[in-house]
Amino acid sequence: MSGKADSSLAPGSRPDRAALEAARDREVPDLLPEPLKLLVVGINPGLWTAATGAHFARPGNRFYPALAAAGITPHVIDASTGYRSEDLALLHRLGLGITYLVPRATARADELSAAELHAGGERLVGTVLTHRPVAVAVAGVTSFRQAFGARSTTVGRQEGWPPRALEAAGEHATTLQATPLFVVPNPSGLNAHETVESLGRAYAQAAQAAGLDLHPSR
Q1: CA 133/CA 211 separation, integer angstroms
Q2: Is 191 exposed, middle or buried (0-12, 13-18, 19+ CB in 10 A)?
């Protein structure tokens, strides 16, 4: 899938307030290259992402600066007006996928219900078993805990998938358990505890486990 949501914006334009409001509750398609090396999992798309059709598109979000700081991409992608074709092609070549626990767009993550997050954990398990990424990185420890009932989870590489995830995987639990799982910091500008550099270090660990070739740090 292309990873682009439906958008009525003119190419290269930023969404205004009306466009953002119109994007509320819109579901944003996943970006799932083949082969899929690293699958990054956000909490849910924001209104800016739903309006532009580009993941983590809101200005001030540090996702793409962190990818560059990690050496995953050779430059900082500007997705604030939607993906440029060459940047979307780059993500496909890298095998870097993006999905969400909950695909429904909201202004804030705290608008999601506990039931949506629980269902989102099961959704993620299904995505992993279907598309078989080499490694998975979930961006946001609090939402991960809520989705999987894993209250003691901390940021970093996990020893394995939570029991709730393995239960959802059923007979494929062994396959899921063999997929390296990382919980990485949320790149939102609201996460004041993290810098682009610290985000980059966390994302680089997941990228290395996924077998991505990292660019030398600048």
Answers
A1: 11
A2: middle
User: Is 67 within 8 Å of 41 (Cβ atoms)?
Assistant: no
- pLDDT tens track for 50-64: 999 999 999 999 999
Q: In what order do the strands lie in the sheet with 135-139?
A: 96-100, 38-42, 135-139, 181-184, 156-157
Q: Which two tokens stand for residue 173?
A: 């639990």
Continuous H helices in the chain:
17-22, 47-52, 63-70, 85-94, 114-131, 141-148, 163-169, 173-177, 196-209
Q: CB 12: neighbour CB atoms within 10 A?
A: 9
Its pTM stands at: 0.93
**CA 132 to mean position of chain CA atoms:** 16
CB atoms within 10 A of CB 48: 24
Decide if 38 contacts 183 (C-beta within 8 A): no
Residue whose entry in the numeric block shows the structure tokens 């200005």: 59
